[in-house]
Amino acid sequence: MSDSKVDRRDFIKTTVVGGAAAASAAGAVTLHEAQAQTENEPVQPATTSAAGYSFLNLEEAAFVEALVDHMIPADQFTPRGTDVGVNIFIDRALAGAWGKGDRLYRSGPWREGVPAQGYQLPLTPSELYREGIQLTNAHCNMTYGRSFDRLEAAQREEVLIALSSQKVDFGSESIAREFWNILYQTVMEGMFSDPIYGGNRNKVGWRMIGFPGVIGFNREHVKNYLDRELPGEPISIEDMS
Distance between CA atoms of 219 and 211, rounded to whole angstroms? Predict the structure, then answer.
């Protein structure tokens, strides 16, 4: 594996602008592309899901698409985040049992927690995502005069750095911290999870880091492949069915 590939992998895993998820139904057009003719028009929140999404409304879909395309820009190793399917992974996760908090303790009492205590909010992941997007867009409108998806790349990076360091005023340190945590977590999962969940389209995340997929045939010989690519194609769950 070349140094440039190692740098790309480390970049995605460790920096604020790092990587993750998009791809809806075959042939679907992203919201940014559909709204290209109305660049200067404000995005209006929708009460129903945006086309091609199960959970995200128009405003939220525009935010997520802008987020994943900024964190995973197209380069010589991967397409942009929406072309990888990270936005679709996120939408499906939020619409499913995980997003609904089916495995979370939901009976309180609810007090402001500290980082060492882990997740302490009364919000389900989908509720936290929805509230965090609204609060982030409010910050962007107040600071830049437009929502996150309308910002320039440098401004988006400023916002993400502020989110990662809890410098955006959410009125709650726990909500600010956990919103960034869930953003980063879902983008990374969308980039590197099995393609059956909507992200990592064409296994581009696995190919980038040399991951073999569900069959870890390199486990006993990992030292032999530290400096070269693994043989064969990555294998997904669908490949096994």
Answer: 11
